[in-house]
Amino acid sequence: MKIDVFDKNGESVEKIDLEKSLFGVTSSGEAVLQYLRVFNANQRQGTSSTKTRGEVSGGGKKPWKQKGTGRARVGSSRNPLWRKGGISHGPIPKDWSLKISKKVKKTVLISALSYKASAEKIRILDQLELKEKKTKLIKDILQNLKISNRTVFVYGTLNENLIKSAANIKGFHIVSADSVNAFDIISSDYLLFSKEGLLKLEEKLNENK
């Protein structure tokens, strides 16, 4: 599968091949759904917590005697029915995390790459070296490539100016070839690679085939 490599002005400088085994496979819908379910579950903090009547401070003394007052009997001022009382059946900390195999993760990542390739949502830059921190430089590149801000840029070598320049662009996300995941790709409109980033990702996915 041939694809253009562009410079920062949006001009094609060469064509390269995308590996069919990584960018031309049939999407595995079942694996994608499983991955998204696990990914979303693992984003849950599970730290919500309330105190029961036994954990709320105070309330050790019976508010009034059992009989003779004409009022309803009550054993503690921390009764769940009272203001400042404990909570009945409230949330407690829980671990919501799920596990998924490396094989399924890789399958879903390749499915996501293949979908973006088939939809012509992949762009490749020959290089992106910023000598200064300037958001406009990134915006101009996106405009020249005719892609939206909702883009994931996969780089090979980190550039501090790139991180700072991209920080103010809503929807634009940068990630290394070593750490990009399927959710990054699925949740974006476009996938932008530096040429080095593409080669590193292909090398990573071809390991232990």
From TrEMBL:
Q: Which domain of life is it from?
A: Bacteria
Biological process (GO) annotations?
A: translation
Record has Phosphoprotein as a keyword: no
GO MF = rRNA binding; structural constituent of ribosome
Q: What is this protein called?
A: Large ribosomal subunit protein uL4
List, alphabetically, the InterPro entries matched. Answer: Ribosomal_uL4, Ribosomal_uL4-like, Ribosomal_uL4_dom_sf
Q: Which PANTHER family match?
A: 50S RIBOSOMAL PROTEIN L4, LARGE RIBOSOMAL SUBUNIT PROTEIN UL4M
Segments of this protein annotated with the region Disordered? 44-84
Among the Pfam families in the record, one is: Ribosomal_L4
Cellular component aspect of the GO annotation = ribonucleoprotein complex; ribosome
Its function, per the record, reads:
One of the primary rRNA binding proteins, this protein initially binds near the 5'-end of the 23S rRNA. It is important during the early stages of 50S assembly. It makes multiple contacts with different domains of the 23S rRNA in the assembled 50S subunit and ribosome. Forms part of the polypeptide exit tunnel.
Keyword entries, A-Z: Ribonucleoprotein, Ribosomal protein, RNA-binding, rRNA-binding
| Family in the record | Belongs to the universal ribosomal protein uL4 family.
| Subunit field text | Part of the 50S ribosomal subunit.
